[in-house]
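Follow-up to my earlier ticket, as requested here are the two runs.
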Amino acid sequence: MNNKNTINIEKTLYGKFINFWVTLFLKFPLPNALKKFVTFETFSYLFIGVLTTIVNYITYVICQTLLLKNYQLSTIISWIVAVMFAFYPNKIFVYKNNLNNYNVINLLKEFSSFTLSRLFSGLCEFIFMIILVDFIGLNDYLSKVIVSIFVIITNYLTGKLFVFKKS
């Protein structure tokens, strides 16, 4: 389904940036098991995932320091903002699932699937934050960073396997 409005992401400045990192990493003597993960999609997800994590963390810090001073509510609000931010970059840049031939119904279905898949990691994030902050006694900002690692991996897998799967 390649029409004249389709953008080849890998030929854009963004694509060249990601391909630079893929090429750089492939120059290292990596085991074959690791080399299969050095792909445009993986590095693109890491880049978008880092941006989403930054949006999540900045929103959390703003909620914590300026507005709420309640880490549970700040976690929920930062999750909502991060999910809203992450949908289009993941759809277009990571999974190369462009907007051509889409109608509003299909977009809403895809956004719903995306949100539901992120709900799982969001619930895990919320529960892990409570465990780390209330039961283990870690600082909430450090806990947020630790939990983000799990969230990034979980979101990549659910996005690839359930939301933006190739037909």
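Run two:
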Amino acid sequence: MAVAGAQTGERYTIRQKIFKIFGNRFHIYGEGGELVGYCAQKAFRFREDIRFFTDESMGTELFSMKARTILDFSTTYDVALPTGETLGSLRRKGFKSMIRDEWMVFDESGADLGRIREDSTTAAVVRRLFEPAAMFMPQKFHVEDLSGASKAIFRTHFNPFVYRLGITVVEEDERFDDILILACACLIATIEGRQSGGSGGTGLFSGD
């Protein structure tokens, strides 16, 4: 897909309008500003089945994320191609993520592949107790393999109307291909928006 941007270093950007009443709409842009992915997520689904397409026509599916269980705080999400081939899965670390978000990443066979961690416990606690702090302490998530080597970084940008999550690929690794990294980022954007109380994301953790 796209290569890293020379100015921002962000290979992809997820944008989501805030204050949607029914469902969420995500746009994924490449480093040159071109649309590379789109999702119109339906509201009031008891079991998540999130599908991303190459554009707004939704004619060609890019990948999907499907929850294994219904409304489970720590459920596992399977990431798959339109062919049905599984690329991997993601599972949130339950109540531990109430303090500092952490996800487990597994490969297509279910083997432990790595982690997604919010930047620091201190910063996470401050953001949760005092939301305006997010203007000065934007959320960051680090995608790491089992050795702790950084593979990608997700960073939110402040804007009261549009959620923006920038995706920087730190190291090329065939185990963490672009689709799996995008799926990780899109799932975090979905969960963060929901737990912040808005239907389309949170203004304090967002950007333009």
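The only thing I checked on run two: The helical segments are 121-129, 178-195. Let me know what else you need.
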